[in-house]
Amino acid sequence: MTVQKREVTPIRSGAPTNKTPTPHRRTTTPLTLTLIALLLLLIPIAAGTGAYPIPTGDVLSSIAHRIGLGAEPLDRVPETVLWDVRFPRITLALLIGASLGCAGALMQGVFGNPLAEPGVIGVSSGAAVGAVGVISVGADFLGTWTVTAVSFVTGLVTVLVVYAMSRSGGRTEVVTLILTGIAVNAFGGALIGLFLFYADTAAVNQITFWQLGSLSQATWPKVLAVLPCAALGLVVAPLYARRLDLLALGERPARHLGVDVERLRVVLVLVIALLTAAAVSVSGIISFVGLVVPHLLRMAAGPGHRFLVPASALGGALVLLAADLAARTIAQPAELPLGVLTALLGSPFFFWLLRRTRRKQGGWA
What we know:
Elements: H1 23-48, H2 56-66, H3 76-111, H4 123-137, H5 146-166, E1 167-168, E2 171-172, H6 174-198, H7 201-212, H8 220-236, H9 241-247, H10 251-256, H11 261-283, H12 289-301, H13 305-329, H14 338-361
Antiparallel strand pairs: 1-2
Helix pairs in contact: 1-2, 1-3, 1-13, 3-8, 3-11, 3-12, 3-13, 4-5, 4-6, 4-7, 4-11, 5-6, 5-11, 8-11, 9-13, 12-13
C-alpha cells in the first residue's frame, strides 16, 4: 500500500492567512476616521463662532488664502480675529487635549488601572505650586514666560521626586508610586494654600483664574512653547504600545516575554510628566480629560494600545476643543473657566465609572 505524502505549507506565527481584516481592525479603523472627521468639522466651526461671528465659508476661504490656494483674503478685522485670536486658541486646545488624552492612556497602561489619570503622580499639583508661588511673590525674571517656565519645571521635578521616593531595592511598585503621589499632591495643596494666605488681592485673583484652567490668553508664542514637548511625547508614546500590551498581562509574564518593566515605567512616567507639565503650564489645571477619553475609547474598541494611545490623543484634542468652544459661548459675553466645565462634565462620568467597575468586579476587595 502506497502512502502519498501531502506537502503542508507552514504557517508563520503571527502572519495573517488571508486578506480579511480582523474584527479589531474593523472596529478601530472607522472609529479613528470618525475622530479625524469630527476634528476637521469642528475646527472651522470653532474658528467662526464667538462674539464676532465669521461664516464657515469665510473661515475656509481664509485658510485657503494662507496656504496659497488662491482664495481672496478677508477684510482686516475678520483676518485679525481668526489668526491672532481664535486659531492660536484652537491650536493650543488641540495640543493640550492631545497631550492630556495621550498621557491618560499611558498612565492607565503603566498602572494597569483604567481609573488612573496623570494628576495621580503629582505633576499637576507640582506645576500648580510653581505657578502659584511665582504669582504670589510677583517674580518676573523671565517676563511673560515666568509662570509657564517655572510651572513646567516644577511639574517635572515633582514627578522625579515622586518616582525617587517610591523606589525600593531597585524597583518601583505601582501601589507605592500611587500612594507617594497622593501624599505629594496633599503637600502641594498645602503649599498652594500657604501661598494664597500671604498673597495680595490681585495675586489671589490671578491664582484663582489660573487654577480654574483657561485658554483665554492663548497666543502663538504659547503654542510654540507647548509644541516641542507635546510633539516629542506624542511621537514617542506609540512606540511603546506593544510593550504596554504585554505589561497588561502582568509584570511577571511581561518580563518573561522580554519587557524591561522597570525601564518601561521610567520612560513612560517621564513622557507622561512631559506631556502633562507642558499642558498645565500654559492652561492651568484641566481635569478629567486624561481619565474620560481613554476609558471611553477602551470601552468602544478594546484595550489594545496600538489603537488606544494615538486615538486618545485624537479624542483628547476633540473633547478639549469642544469644551473650550462651549466655555466661551454658553455664557456670552462672559467665559466659563475651562477646568470648571471639564470637571462638571467629568465628575458624574467618573462616579458612573466607579459604580460600573464595582458592579462588574463584585466589590473592591
